[in-house]
Design a protein that fits this description.
The radius of gyration is 18 Å and the shape is globular. The relative contact order is 0.13. The protein contains nine helices and five strands. It has 245 residues and is α/β, with parallel strands linked by helices. It has a five-stranded mixed β-sheet. The N and C termini lie far apart (41 Å). Helix content is 53%, strand content 8%. The structure holds glutathione (GSH).
């Protein structure tokens, strides 16, 4: 069972469930953590942050970056989504649960390379296309297109007829790229640019459909309309904060 609590309701660092996630439902960084826990079959308590009003628990748990997501495992906080994914994979490792990272060191290195590439290129361009951060919209659109073209090629080369980047099941890179899909779809509505074009990206769009349908993903991937609404709300919150400073 998944419990939903407000951060203020969480007692302290040592309280609550064994596994807690401080996050925001719409955050692609947080979605990664939810998907990884679901893939491993780990029950968790979801502590939803209020946008624009960071909880004491978040500030205490991630005092350096003050960002979500944070995984709290038996009271111990772990920050940074990609580090959290690796932690989850190491802690819940047995023959009965799927592995997130592949066994082969070279495959692992490739997946980490592409995961970092995705966060360096897609995440910053996406917030420009969403109007959350100021920047050159055409340049941002071109950056996303180039990144997706590289991923299309990488999937065709690495996937070798497999369903996912991770092979027959989703893995590290699937989770990292897949977490961006909701916002990429929302960007198409918000900015009016086609980013997931199936004629240009046949492998990637087919992979995206499989990813969305996966049992660990379907319940935590927000609907595009909700993300579009959330984006407008986020922009309002940021504007109000900027004008009050
Ligand atoms: N590199 C971090 C990025 C996390 C991040 O940027 N989180 C955003 C929400 S999507 C956040 O907490 N922003 C609040 C802020 O920047 O103050 C990760 O992978 O976890």
């Amino acid at each position: 069972m998944v419990y939903i609590l407000k951060p203020e309701m969480a007692s302290n660092d040592g309280g609550g469930a064994a596994v807690r996630v401080i996050g925001v439902w719409a955050s692609h960084f947080a979605i990664r953590v939810y998907v990884a826990l679901k893939l491993k079959g780990v029950e968790y308590e979801s502590l939803e942050e209020v946008v624009g009003n960071k909880s004491e628990l978040l500030l205490k748990s991630n005092p350096v970056h003050k960002k979500i997501p944070v995984l709290i495992h038996h009271g111990k906080p772990i920050a940074e989504s990609m580090i959290i994914l690796q932690y989850i994979d190491e802690v819940w490792a047995s023959d009965d649960v799927p592995a997130i990272l592949q066994a082969d060191p070279y495959e692992r290195a490739l997946q980490r390379f592409w995961a970092q590439y995705v966060d360096d290129k897609i995440a910053p361009a996406s917030v420009i296309l969403r109007g959350v951060v100021k920047g050159d919209v055409d340049e941002a659109a071109a950056q996303v297109t180039t990144a997706l073209e590289h991923l299309e090629e990488a999937f065709a080369k690495r996937g070798q007829g497999k369903s996912y980047f991770g092979g027959e099941d989703i893995g590290y890179l699937d989770i990292v790229i897949g977490s961006h899909l909701g916002w990429l779809k929302a960007v198409e509505t918000i900015a009016g640019v086609k980013v997931l074009d199936e004629t240009k990206l046949p492998e990637l769009t087919a992979w995206a459909q499989r990813f969305y349908a996966h049992h660990a993903v379907r319940d935590v991937m927000p609907e595009t309309d909700r993300l579009v609404q959330f984006n407008a709300y986020l922009i309002d919150v940021l504007r109000a904060k900027a004008s009050s400073n």
